[in-house]
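**Discrete fold encoding**
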Amino acid sequence: MIAIIDYGMGNLRSVQKGFEHAGVSDVVVTSDPRTVESAEALVLPGVGAFRDAAANLRAACMWDIVRERASSGAPLLGICLGMQLLVDVSYEDGEWEGLGLVRGTCERLPVGVKVPHIGWNTVEQPKPSRLFVGIPDGAAFYFVHSYRVVPADESCIIGRTEHGVPFAAAVESGSVYGVQFHPEKSSEMGLRLLANFAALARG
């Protein structure tokens, strides 16, 4: 079972429907910590502000569980704000602690770059990853964001795109994956990525 974590910040149903359209049926949206503890894999979606998302995760008693499950090797996929939550610290309207599962920071796109970045962008794959099996290098995905992840070690980057400046569109660190785009809104290639993550969850 894949648990989509409900902490009050995500477009949960569209992510669930994305998995279902990709042929993955064993997916549940949950706010129950015990369900998250027992799931084979976790999805951390997110829309909104980093500070509120981190506070909601803690209030829902999910913060430590997500860190523990990911650290123990359970596959975890962070989507959009969910990817940003994976890093050490965010500088969105202050300085806020992240989950620390991907070393790095979350920073605003530079001054002079139009934000929010909304629309389709091609994603280059600098290295192979099981998350992108069957997805052509340069495939397009749908983005909506104003902040970007800046990894401390660029070797974790498995997808790059450009909006004013190049930045990480996807990362992989152990069993932890993050995508800045919305696979559930990215047509056939996005559904393939969700199916690939489900395959990872099955081992």
The first strand starts at residue 2 and ends at 5. The CA atoms of residues 54 and 98 lie 7 Å apart. The helical segments are 12-21, 33-38, 50-59, 63-71, 81-84, 187-202. The mean pLDDT is 96.
